[in-house]
Amino acid sequence: RQRQICIRDSLLIHGDGSNAGQNNTFLDSSDSNHTVTASGGVYQGTFSPFSEPEGNWSIYCDGTTDTGLHITDHADFNIASQNFCMEAWIHVDADTGNTRYIAGHSNAAGQNASGAVQFQIGSNNKLTAYIFNAADTDNYLTLEPSSTTIADNRWYHVAVVRNGTAWNLYQDGVSIANVTSSIAVNNSTSKFGIGLLGEYTAGHFKGYISNFRLVVGSPVYTGNFTPPSGPLTTTGGTYPSNTNVNTSIPAAHTKILTAQNSSGSLVLLFFHPYFFYTLKNWYVRTNSNWRKAI
Predict the structure, then answer these.
(1) What pLDDT, on a 0 to 100 scale, did the predictor assign at position 26?
(2) What is the pLDDT, as a whole number, of residue 49?
(3) Which residues of 90-125 are buried (b: 16+ CB within 10 A; e: fewer)?
(4) I need a surface site. Which of 225, 256, 283, 286 has the fewest CB within 10 A?
(5) pLDDT value for 56
(6) Higher model confidence: residue 286 or residue 208?
(7) 127-131 sheet: strands from edge to edge
(8) pLDDT class of 267 with cuts at 50, 70, 90
(9) In the Cβ-directed half-sphere of 198, how many Cα atoms lie within 13 Å?
């Protein structure tokens, strides 16, 4: 028997915006303020890896074709030989055994020549990053762990980082794959995607993505670290320990930041992984539609 939850319950949050309650306006909180375009079944809400509801948001991608966020290519995203960090919190649904793209550039055909940094969970359920070489996009770097995998229905902090010639793939602050290389990253002219691979129409992410950040010019992490305990900012964030963490990033180095996105009149259930409720089958409402939240 299912318990019914009153919409006036104190665990529900009402956020007012200017997009007529559609819950489909997404913001880039970096100084660049890139225009973010949503497509397909992508929503935003208060489910996040942090305990405070206000401002700690995530997006939900339902995994259907062309679902995610698009940003038109910009000179900001030309990493070339610079240090960089691409990171996010992710929480995947029951979609194991399928390739799920977290972020990256690509044209509709998925050609290597249109790639730059391709961040994904592979069909083997391993976090993976492909780095496409500007000199030869068919000669790319692969960062993939030997055994560590991503499980469904829990939050992970994930990051791919370049620091000089050292490339590292981090999962919950621990380097799970590394390589040494001096290549320059390919300069893609295709769209950048979050929850999907640019303009490519397969392998879409199914689950939640919170606090996605792209920093170009600073590595952010220089070794194993403790993941952030609060929302990321353009200059750093809240960390339990600053060991191997740059918390004084020049704001101009942060090219994309989707840490605090709440636009549109909506009613959402506040839910996160640090408290456990006995009630089951909680739902969220977006406009006139209801969707199971957990």
Answers:
(1) 81
(2) 87
(3) bbbbebeebbbbbbbbbbeebebebbbbbbbbbeeb
(4) 283
(5) 61
(6) 208
(7) 37-39, 68-71, 192-194, 100-105, 117-121, 127-131, 141-143
(8) very low
(9) 27
Count of CA atoms in the C-beta half-sphere (13 A) of 45: 27
Q: How many residues does the chain have?
A: 294
Q: Which helix (H) or strand (E) holds 213?
A: strand 206-216
| Residue 126 banded pLDDT, cuts 50, 70, 90 | very high
Token digits for 64? 């259907």
Residue 174, pLDDT > 70, answer yes
Residue with tokens 């994930």: 158
User: What's the pLDDT at 85?
Assistant: 98
- Answer yes or no: is pLDDT of 216 > 60: yes
Whole-number average pLDDT of the chain: 81
Q: CA-based Rg of the chain, rounded to a whole angstrom?
A: 18
- Residue 47 structure tokens: 């489910």
Beta bridge partners of 104: 193
HSE of 132, CA atoms in CB hemisphere, 13 A? 20
- CB 47 within 8 Å of CB 293: yes
160 sits in which H/E element: strand 155-163
Q: Are 61 and 210 in contact (CB under 8 A)?
A: no
The string of DSSP codes covering 104-138 is EE--TT--GGG-SEEEEE-TTS-EEEEE-BSS-TT
| pTM for the structure as a whole | 0.82
Angle, CA of 108, 114 and 117, to the nearest 5°: 110
- 263 pLDDT above the threshold of 50: no
Of 253, 217, 221, the residue nearest 82 (C-alpha): 217
